[in-house]
From TrEMBL:
InterPro entries: Class_I_gatase-like. SUPFAM superfamilies: Class I glutamine amidotransferase-like. The lineage of its organism: Bacteria, Bacillati, Actinomycetota, Actinomycetes, Kitasatosporales. It comes from Streptomyces roseicoloratus. This is Uncharacterized protein. Gene3D superfamilies: 3.40.50.880.
Amino acid sequence: MLFSGWDEEGAPRAAEVPGHPFFIGTLFQPELVSGPGSVHRLITAFTAEVSARAAVAV
């Protein structure tokens, strides 16, 4: 596990599993700042990975 995101005070707020296609745990809530025409980068990255893997599985 790799801590990869911190808050303004330096406390860890996101962790990843290196080598996994897309595993991230976060205490941030990207859905709260997303809206029509302005989607958070974490949500965009997740949906892109899901789409790419779905295309390979078909």
